[in-house]
Records
---
Amino acid sequence: MTQTTKNQNPPISGAGRPGQRQQERELRKRRRARRRQLLLSGIVALLILVAALTWAIVAARQSSERAALADAHATATANAAVVQSTQTANAANAKATADVQSLIKANPKGQDTPPQVTSPLQKTASGVQYQIIKAGDGGTVQAGRTVAFEYTGWIQGTNKKFDSSYDHGGQPFSVTVGQGQVIKGWEDGVTGMKIGETRRLIIPPSLGYGSGAQKDQSGKVIIPANATLIFDVTAVAFSQPAQQSAPTN
């Protein structure tokens, strides 16, 4: 009995745990599947990240291109506007120069007495009477605009000339309307004129020099007190402000 016990083979390892190897194989299989799933998830996430980065780069490039095109269009538009404005200004300046030369040719000097005018007599709200001698087709003279005028002035009653731009070589007289640079009647009378228009103004003393006589440097009276003034004025062009004295002598 003892001999038999001694010669008995030892038990096989794992005996008494049936199915363990199968479980280990299943466990390894699940681990491999988990690793494959993680790897696949990583690849998908990487692909999504690459796609997102690619989209962002393309969108940024398209946005940059659109901005560049917009800037180029804006620059081209601005340049075209500058060119157009310059051409318009040059054309206006050329026309104004031609108009001044034509006026100087027609009036080598201011006429000594006011020529006859037959157009209807109109009146501003302030009391300045005016007649349109020649219609204009340019912009409208308004407060705040600086306008170059050719003019001749006479004293009503005596019809004596006291001043004329044509007697100064035809140099236009610039006035910024509404700034009090000239007598009230002049400002009221020229407001609403068109560039190119010639208008006769009849200015009462209250809108002219009132009871104050205007004298030259020698003390000679040029415009007597309480004088009603007559001006023939032509709006030549819009211009930059100029430092000039009022047309009184």
---
Amino acid sequence: MPPATRPGFGAAITGLGLVTPAGIGVAANRERVWSGVSCAAPDPGLAGGPVDFSCRVPGFDPGALLGGFTARQLERFVQFAIVAARQALAGAGRDPRTWDGARVGVVIGNSLGGIPALLAAQAALLDGGPRQVSPLTVPMYMVNMVAGQVAIDVGAKGPSWVTATACASGATAIGAARELLRSGDCDVVLAGGTEAALTPLAVAGLGRMGALSGRSADPARASRPFDADRDGFVPAEGAAVLVLEREEDARARTAPIHAVVRGYGASTDAHHPTAPEPGGEGIERALRAALRDAGVGDCDVDHVNAHGPSTPIGDLVEGRTLRRVLGDRPLVTSTKGVTGHPLAAAGAIEAAYTALALADRSVPPTANLTRLAPELDLDVVHGAPRAAALDVAVSTSMGFGGHNAALVLTRA
């Protein structure tokens, strides 16, 4: 077992599961994200609100994917995670019927839980009184239940956690999962993030904060990371789950390896509830910690999948920090131009895309970028994918509360 202090400890990504606005499954996501075509569209569920468009997961039928009885007992954010976890395990060649469940962990990022279940229960209470409230209400909306339900579904009896660091939650989960492998507490960990909170209430709250794009007349061009004319993000939903194993274990069983999580860093701005620290010191600390943990230099980074939410302040702070730490060498992208911003799921989804970029040696374009913000001096890929010799990549995440996370991935 590798010593806990060894830099560059490798957590191999042997399975990927994706349920996103770009599609269900790895193949659908690769095709849509690398096409650079936005998923944003008018959303009937948000009709009448000031922001009436979003990026929803297309064609998600929980009854067909999970069975009607099971699906009715689970909120959408949990349904997403279970479907993604099953995909990831199948891709990793892992059969839960054959493993020692006590050596398997689950770490999933989430922030908003089952808001739809809570709203439905409140409406039932007001309309018909306490007896009309479903006994499933509490276990459906509790944030921790996504880890619990995934563990039940796959028979994982090791540690199970939910990380809640806002929009950094998915990346935080992957970093925490890697530590479970490095410490020897687990041999396999399912790690990722999920969010399904596209309700009028949640979207109205984000809109009142000034975080969302107001381009209702042209949703497909609303999310434009790093563009001079960006005005906010497009709300989205989705999930990603990664199967992580110690690199030597994965190679010993000749498992498919998409990429290796080699470093992780985290920090807190301690500045403002929703605005990033203006000088970017917080995300810089996380990024430098991840590089140090991975044992790689700043000049070794070939590609960055940036948080890049398409907000005026966020993109500027992050972009300047990337330039200061990494220079102008890395090929930068923000896949939120295609998927919108799936909040707590973002870091995990983008880590999966980073792994695919390394495996394919191709960087997906930043959708809707037509004129790079003049304050930024970065090589942001746009217009079309760009082939390159990618060996080391970084995925960065920033969240409300001042949470920052960075992952360093290397080619398998």
